[in-house]
Amino acid sequence: MTVLTTSTLGDLVANAPARAAVLDRLGLDYCCHGQRSLDDACTAAGLDATTVAASLDLVSATPATERPSEPAQLTEHIEATHHAYLHAELPELVALAAKVASVHAERHPELGEVGVLVNELAADLEPHMLKEERILFPAIRALVAGTRAFPFGTVRNPIAMMSIEHDRAGDLLAALRAATVGYRVPDDGCASYRALYERLAHMEADTHLHIHLENNVLFPAAVAAEAS
Fold first, then answer.
1. What are phi and psi of 227, to 5 degrees?
2. Coil, strand or helix: which one is 214?
């Protein structure tokens, strides 16, 4: 599959999820800003779109078979995979960030900002996920089952709110990447320091994919289900 520079970032990852790692490495946001074309995103980032497209061409274009495409099943997949991961990982990252800062912040004051950002992410994402699990996802499952018995009029309303909150999470992740200089561990970083940055990098990648699945796959499918 030849990558077209006019394709949106969201579509590129939807067609081949392995491309997410390439876009993450280049700092191209395919989740919160997945509707931008590759051309536009590369221009904004000062990258050559043709070169980036060639890199994406090297990645397998075979869609992941383990991820369901049907909306109700996709909500279950997101909960079991991405929500479960964040529910378990965020409290541990908060504790680990505090531990590393207590030892290294005198020499690396940026760890204070890292700790603040990790706490803000946890404070934002935990209630966000609960709203999806208790309100939006059940509504999507009801739509698929042919029922529209929910109190907020149209599924577009909670989707709009969740999308705004996704943008906030994306901004925090970008700030975290900047504060850590791309999760680069300094020469005097201990094993805990290294573990923190490795786990933060993994959390960023997983959350980018998580938000992409909702913004660019699940939410459009839910809107289409309601319209039909």
1. -65, -30
2. helix
Which residue is it, tokens 């280049």?
26
Rounded mean pLDDT of the chain? 92
**Gap between the Cα atoms of 151 and 169, Å rounded:** 26
16/127: higher pLDDT: 127
Distance of CA 152 to the CA centre of its chain: 26
> Over the Cα atoms of the chain, what is R_g?
19
Q: What is the mean pLDDT of residues 105-123?
A: 97
Q: Are 66 and 220 in contact (CB under 8 A)?
A: no
Dist CA 167 CA 211 (whole Å) = 9
Q: Give the tens place of pLDDT for each residue, 125-168.
A: 999 999 999 999 999 999 988 877 677 788 999 999 999 999 99
Please list the alpha-helical segments (H only) found in 37-151: 38-45, 49-57, 71-78, 84-104, 110-131, 137-144
- CA triple 128-130-94, angle to 5 deg: 65
